[in-house]
Prior knowledge:
Distance between the termini: 17 Å
Structural class: mainly alpha
Number of helices: 4
Radius of gyration: 20 Å
Number of strands: 0
Helix content: over 70%
Order of helices and strands: HHHH
Shape: elongated
Largest sheet: none
Amino acid sequence: xxxxxxxLQLIRFVPLIYSINLACIIVVLVLEMVPxxxxxxFFNGLSGSAPVHLxxxxxxxxxxxxxxxxxxxxxxxxxxxxxxxxxxxxxLRKNMF
Length: 97
């Protein structure tokens, strides 16, 4: 069996857990870009060429919400990832025997 077919079968076995895990990983990776984007907007605001005018308190609030969401998702990811890995391992053991 080819590798891509093997992974496709595993994903089809537990699609909900895989989808939740994938969505959490994507959100965490996107949230890692938020501090850089907020820093850019802060310095654009200082230069006066900002397309969106954000004051310092708004930037700090968005940064805190982003960091809190990233922490919550980072602690929530092992729950879905571990479930998917152990389910896939159980399926492999069942099919081998």
